[in-house]
Amino acid sequence: MEFGAQSEYGMLRKVLMHKPSEHLRRVTPQTKDHYLFRDIVYWREFIREHEAFVEALRGEGVEVYLLGELLGEEDRRIAERMPDLVYTRDICSVTNLGAIRMRMRHQARYAEPLLAEKAMERLGIPIALRVSHPAYLEGGDLVYLDLETLLIGFGPRSDEGGVEAMRELMLGKAIKELVAVTLPSFRVHLDGALMILSRDLAVIHKPSLELYPAWIYREDGEVELAFIEDYLKERGFDIIYVDDWEVRNFGTNILGIGDGKYVTYEWNERVKRLLEERGFDVIGIPGCQLSLGGGGPHCMTCPILRES
Fold this sequence. Notes:
By secondary structure, the chain is an alpha/beta fold. It has a single domain (12-306), classed as L-arginine/glycine Amidinotransferase, Chain A. Helices cover 24% and strands 26% of the residues. It has helices at residues 43-59, 73-80, 112-123, 160-170, 206-209, 228-234, 244-248, 269-277; strands at 12-17, 63-66, 92-95, 98-101, 127-130, 142-146, 149-154, 177-182, 194-198, 201-204, 214-218, 223-226, 238-241, 255-258, 261-265, 281-285, 302-306. The strands form five sheets. It has a five-stranded mixed beta sheet with strand order 6-7-8-11-12. It has a three-stranded mixed beta sheet with strand order 2-1-17, with helices on one face. A three-stranded mixed beta sheet has the order 3-4-5, sandwiched between helices. The relative contact order is 0.18.
């Protein structure tokens, strides 16, 4: 299968998602924190909202692969009982070199990358990297600025070992520049604070990104420090700033599907309006239950193939 998804806004052709099941009832007041959910959910509505998202993507011509359909019977039964698996972005990333099998910080998600690897093998996509002990790396911390520039957040979930593993694999081979963005303790993943929407437009939550400088690694071995807002401006980016309410409700967690189209939760009204004023087409999806799991549209998709 053709693969490679080193972009946030190139035409999305193939994506891996996971269909939730009635086993969402395993998320109770006693277990929700263990499963990293914000609250308990109404499982039927959670499933309906996810199905609406899948159909919205298919309606735009995106080929959606469902994880459970790529697994053997026993693994499929296990996957159904893992509520966080719906957020497939975190467990795998498909580069031009092959798939990256992540290593998760929390026990609730520790087994998920192995299921993603089995799905990649079924699709015929080689595994370019298996992040291993003691490093941690989660896909929500990977945001592509462009085909040759990768931003990686590290802090609460991913760590320096994960950044180093990606630097060794990618720099000088699949990318020319890697920017390691230090995240504060209150920001789970980079895609919750920053998203690249086009060659010259980004959306950011400034308070999540202004505490510490980022490390810029270049293929010639040069290393520099810069605050990410300044770095983006120096690269010619216009910036949309989200406020604390918007970032809490996944205002930056936007999925680009190509041709100037984006998917966001329907309540992200101000950002949606600003994008439409710039000529973009924004698809709003329901997510009152999906968001209680702690993720947005970007989180729920693992792109397999994008046109650069």
